[in-house]
């Protein structure tokens, strides 16, 4: 999908005019890194499993059938080969330049930090953090990848991903930080998200700044209220500025 040059030029102008940009992103930011999108064709929701993915990655399923949960977790949610793409790198570059104040992400892959972003609010947690439910000790993604069955700590406790599962609430401190960043921003870029997952998508209601930009391949509920709407791949668009 070719992105009109005038739209990229306007985006560049907005970035130049702004001093407190926040980026709010979703799965579409990471698909260019080879991480499957939950909701697109050939994404996680189209895989052949005994249960639908939203059932498997729910709190009640984790308690009921941890063996199957971890089989899915290792195969579908751990992507050790994934590397930051053009979008991640550009956002880190904008932060280093003092333009971007925060990234608010629904993704759990840690690619923003890998690209060099420092202020990242991970609304749904991270696969890079896994903790023992008994003693609290943390384990990295590598440990989880090479574990078998239900991973256990040295103390015998079950290790759980520091990821927000369906039926679980978001972390209060993370929400507060994200709300503060969005409410103080003079420009909000929404990218690579259908804005279908709540309560995360509701956080953009706190934006009262000057420029609202939506960059997404498909339509979103906020298209009509955007000052600039660009339908295209997020990496391609951002690398243009």
TrEMBL record:
EC number of the protein: 2.3.1.286
CC cofactor: Zn(2+)
GO molecular-function terms, A-Z: histone deacetylase activity, NAD-dependent; NAD+ binding; zinc ion binding
Catalytic activity, reaction form: N(6)-acetyl-L-lysyl-[protein] + NAD(+) + H2O = 2''-O-acetyl-ADP-D-ribose + nicotinamide + L-lysyl-[protein]
Gene3D superfamilies the UniProt entry points to: SIR2/SIRT2 'Small Domain, TPP-binding domain
Residue ranges constituting the Deacetylase sirtuin-type domain according to the UniProt record: 1-241
Domain of life: Bacteria
Residues where nicotinamide binds: 38, 108-109
Binding site for NAD(+): 27, 31, 38-39, 106, 108-109, 124, 193-194, 216, 234
Keywords for this protein: Cytoplasm, Metal-binding, NAD, Transferase, Zinc
Cofactor annotation remark: Binds 1 zinc ion per subunit.
Positions with a binding annotation for Zn(2+): 132, 135, 153, 155
InterPro entries for this protein: DHS-like_NAD/FAD-binding_dom, NAD-dep_sirtuin_deacylases, Sirtuin, Sirtuin_cat_small_dom_sf, Sirtuin_class_U, Ssirtuin_cat_dom
A UniProt-annotated Pfam family: SIR2
Active-site residues (renumbered): 124 (proton acceptor)
A GO CC annotation given for this chain: cytoplasm
Described purpose of this protein according to its UniProt entry: NAD-dependent protein deacetylase which modulates the activities of several enzymes which are inactive in their acetylated form.
NCBIfam families on file: PRK00481.1-1, PRK00481.1-3
Protein name as annotated: NAD-dependent protein deacetylase
Biological classification of the source: Bacteria, Bacillati, Bacillota, Clostridia, Lachnospirales
